[in-house]
């Protein structure tokens, strides 16, 4: 099995190294990751400037490729340029901090996995609850075991988001809950206003998603209970129910277009 491994914390992140060691039990691992931390960049890509990638070595053995770009860049160039063939699996992580709820939409970790899914590959984003003394080795073992079971249970390519709370690391047998992504925004997004030494105001973004106490369990509520969460994701943003309704809509723009055209100088007409 050929595995492409990336992250958004940078190629020197301990979570990446821990995940690499575990994934080597499943196959050949190719590391292609951002040269520096790219947390919160979402699915940005580099196309207005050169994309630089440097091959790194450790004890005369190739460590991987450090890409001066985003996590999505790393997956794209990794597949096109550095992997000897199309990977069988893309893994992004381990991220230092959970990527659950609406934070999935901001996450560079998840975006890298989505990029892998664009190629029709099974792709897994892996995140661990933030802790200054994070036990990435234990989290990587949980992630590897979960990924191995995913591959055994489902042969068709699929995009997954895997989150591991700190509480699960101390459990003899952590439990995985398959849950939907929480959508409740709550009052998690806040800004703390501060004053710099020159008397100028600036703001520090604080983000702490608040779980809505609804009837159905989500990744946010399950993580609070200490469960490992697994969520199947999709990158198709089309709302199919509304699309079906809109197919019967009729639009007539001729009059408005004619009015707008009449206001343009004749030299602008085509």
Record the strand order, biggest sheet: 3-4-2-1-5-6-7-11-8
Order of helices and strands: EHEEEHEHEHEEEEHEHH
Sheet having the most strands: 9 strands, mixed
- In total, the number of strands is 11
Question: Helices and strands in order, then pairings?
Answer:
Elements: E1 2-6, H1 14-23, E2 28-34, E3 53-58, E4 61-67, H2 71-82, E5 89-96, H3 108-118, E6 122-128, H4 136-153, E7 159-164, E8 176-178, E9 189-195, E10 201-207, H5 219-224, E11 228-233, H6 240-246, H7 254-262
Parallel strand pairs: 1-2, 1-5, 2-4, 5-6, 6-7, 8-11
Antiparallel strand pairs: 3-4, 7-11, 9-10
Helix pairs in contact: 1-4, 2-3
Can you put this structure into words, describing what you see?
This protein has 270 residues and is an alpha/beta fold. It has one domain (2-182, 214-239): Stationary-phase Survival Protein Sure Homolog, Chain: A (3-Layer(aba) Sandwich), CATH 3.40.1210.10. The chain has 7 helices and 11 strands. The chain has a 9-stranded mixed beta sheet, with helices on both faces. A two-stranded antiparallel ribbon has the order 9-10. A hairpin with a 5-residue loop joins strand 9 and strand 10. The chain is globular, with a radius of gyration of 22 Å. The protein starts with a strand and ends in an 8-residue tail after the last helix.
């Amino acid at each position: 099995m050929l595995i492409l491994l990336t992250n958004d914390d940078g190629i020197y992140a301990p979570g990446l190294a821990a995940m690499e060691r575990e994934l080597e039990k499943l196959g050949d691992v190719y590391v292609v990751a951002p040269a520096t931390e790219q947390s919160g960049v979402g699915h940005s890509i580099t196309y207005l400037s050169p994309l630089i990638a440097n091959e790194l070595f450790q004890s005369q053995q190739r460590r991987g490729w450090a890409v001066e770009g985003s996590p999505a860049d790393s997956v794209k160039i990794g597949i096109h340029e550095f992997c000897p063939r199309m990977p069988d699996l893309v893994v992004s992580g381990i991220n230092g901090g959970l990527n659950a709820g609406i934070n999935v939409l901001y996450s560079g970790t998840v975006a890298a996995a989505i990029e892998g899914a664009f190629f029709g590959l099974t792709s897994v984003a892996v995140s661990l609850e933030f802790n200054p003394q994070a036990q990435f080795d234990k989290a990587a073992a949980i992630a590897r075991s979960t990924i191995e079971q995913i591959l055994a249970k489902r042969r068709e390519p699929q995009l997954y988001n895997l989150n591991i709370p700190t509480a699960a690391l101390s459990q003899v047998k952590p439990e995985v809950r398959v849950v939907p992504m929480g959508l409740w925004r709550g009052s998690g997004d806040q800004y703390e206003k501060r004053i710099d030494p020159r008397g100028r105001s600036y703001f520090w973004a604080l983000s702490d998603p608040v779980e809505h106490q609804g009837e159905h369990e989500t990744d946010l509520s399950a993580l609070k209970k200490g469960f490992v969460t697994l969520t199947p994701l999709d990158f198709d943003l089309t709302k199919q129910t509304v699309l079906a309704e809109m197919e019967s809509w009729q639009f007539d723009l001729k009059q408005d277009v004619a009015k707008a055209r009449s206001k343009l100088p004749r030299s602008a007409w085509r």
